[in-house]
Amino acid sequence: MHPVWLLDLDNTLHDASSVVFPRINRAMTDFVVERLGIPEHQADELRKVYWQRYGATMLGLVRHHAIDAHEFLRATHPFPDLHRLIRRDQRLAHALRRLPGRKVLVTNAPANYARGVIKALGIGAFLDEVISIESMHFAGRFQPKPSRPMLRRLAARLRVPSSRCVLVEDSLENLRSAHRVGMRTVHVTGVAPRVAKVAWKARSASDRRVGLQVQSVTLLPRRRLRSVHRTP
Ligand SMILES: [Mg+2]
Question: Cα of 96 to ligand 1 centre, how many Å?
Fold first, then answer.
């Protein structure tokens, strides 16, 4: 039986670290400066602290500063020109088409932005569903990756056992959560050139919770998936 692929977006399907993330970070810092009335260096620090603590800056701002999530997401993903910033690689569409099984994009980014990136990458036809941060709201709060309850709910919603899902991600934190709920995992190491690849590779290679490691999703259909198919 084919797996259900849960594909992360940023730094998994495309390199977000060179242009896109710096712009989002800039917009988030500006938003925090304006709304909380604090100096830029403090706002920048707060943005990073919340991102590390909650997996998304938005969560900290909603929880501690009563910021409206949707307003924040709109203000911090200003990309009318995404198609110019994102490099389309035909090999990605080709790889997704060849990958057997359902493909679900699962991103902590907002839906508008995700749709823009998908369009710029030319991969919309190969995705069965897009799960953005807006749909990770339940029990009265946002619970994005690496939330384990969210991953369990996601598998239930897709009507498959967790063991049939494969999370494909650049974030080890998210992969560990997926492993804990019984999903299989693929660590994507090489999309973002600025990531310290050697250190990450060493860490994930020694991390038995990572089922398979690929430099790029374009290589996935060619890899023997035995290790991905193994029950963790
Ligand atoms: Mg990512």
Answer: 17
